[in-house]
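Cross-check.
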Amino acid sequence: MSPTVPSRLALALLAALALSACTSRHEVPSYAGMTEDDDAFCRQNGVAVGSNEYVACRKNRDVQRSNALTRANRAQRNLGEMMLNNPERP
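Predicted model, tokenized:
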């Protein structure tokens, strides 16, 4: 083996590691507006912890987060399918 093969392998490994660090599958998209703490969000509305309103607020936040994640996943899947079905070749 020549000395360039290990260096190329190391470079490819570092590039793959750097790219994989940018992706996270189960994070809520930043445009969803769900980045703050749910407890703080529900408390700022003057709702007592443990009350029915507090529980409903937390459930609503969970549903909103789940819907945002579902939309993001659907958009990613649609983009992938569009790219597979409509390849552009130079």
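The chain has three helices and no strands. The mean pLDDT is 79. Passed to J.P. for a second look.
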